[in-house]
Amino acid sequence: MTADPKAAREADGLVVPGVGAYAACMEGLNSVRGGRIIGERLAGGRPVLGICVGMQILFERGIEHGVLTEGCGEWPGTVERLEAPVVPHMGWNTVRAPEDSRLFAGLDKDTRFYFVHSYGVRRWELEAADHIRAPLVTWADHAGDEFVAAVENGPLWATQFHPEKSGDAGAHLLKNWLDTLS
């Protein structure tokens, strides 16, 4: 754990955690020029893992309580309130990962992860292009409302759920990410 920009740039892997509100997370990140550090790492092919709000701030923008906040812009899209009858989405849930996912490799399709959030990305907006490999997007559903549960995009991986609170499944997933570090 560090607020030292040099240490964050040079680390084998950078985890961007997040708990709380999108705007507060971006304010903290901006105060240490964290968005720039994330961008520099990704430009150099250096691994970054976003968790929960740490995933959300990787998108272009978030809207919470009517407040629009600009994010890091690594992916197009808007973090918005879930439209499920019961919010927050709190507890264990399954995900639908792509077959070739490295993040979920070795985990059964019915594996459950721990979620606690009221906001998420409900539409994937990045269009595929012939010359760019499309990110792998994992989805989940809460009471009929679909949202992005994880993304794998070159050296940038992220989860809406909390792997650190997801027991053995979360530990396995984190090991999959750690195995990509050099």
Automatic annotation (TrEMBL):
Glutamine amidotransferase domain boundaries: 13-178
Quaternary structure, from the entry: Heterodimer of HisH and HisF.
GO biological process terms held by the UniProt record: L-histidine biosynthetic process
Pfam family, one: GATase
GO molecular function: glutaminase activity; imidazoleglycerol-phosphate synthase activity; lyase activity
Signal sequence extent: none
EC identifiers of the protein: 3.5.1.2, 4.3.2.10
Keywords associated with the record: Amino-acid biosynthesis, Glutamine amidotransferase, Histidine biosynthesis, Hydrolase, Lyase, Transferase
Catalytic site: C52, H162, E164
Catalytic reactions of this protein: L-glutamine + H2O = L-glutamate + NH4(+); 5-[(5-phospho-1-deoxy-D-ribulos-1-ylimino)methylamino]-1-(5-phospho-beta-D-ribosyl)imidazole-4-carboxamide + L-glutamine = D-erythro-1-(imidazol-4-yl)glycerol 3-phosphate + 5-amino-1-(5-phospho-beta-D-ribosyl)imidazole-4-carboxamide + L-glutamate + H(+)
Pathway: Amino-acid biosynthesis; L-histidine biosynthesis; L-histidine from 5-phospho-alpha-D-ribose 1-diphosphate: step 5/9
Annotated protein name in UniProt: Imidazole glycerol phosphate synthase subunit HisH
Role, per record: IGPS catalyzes the conversion of PRFAR and glutamine to IGP, AICAR and glutamate. The HisH subunit catalyzes the hydrolysis of glutamine to glutamate and ammonia as part of the synthesis of IGP and AICAR. The resulting ammonia molecule is channeled to the active site of HisF.
Organism this protein belongs to: Lentzea albida
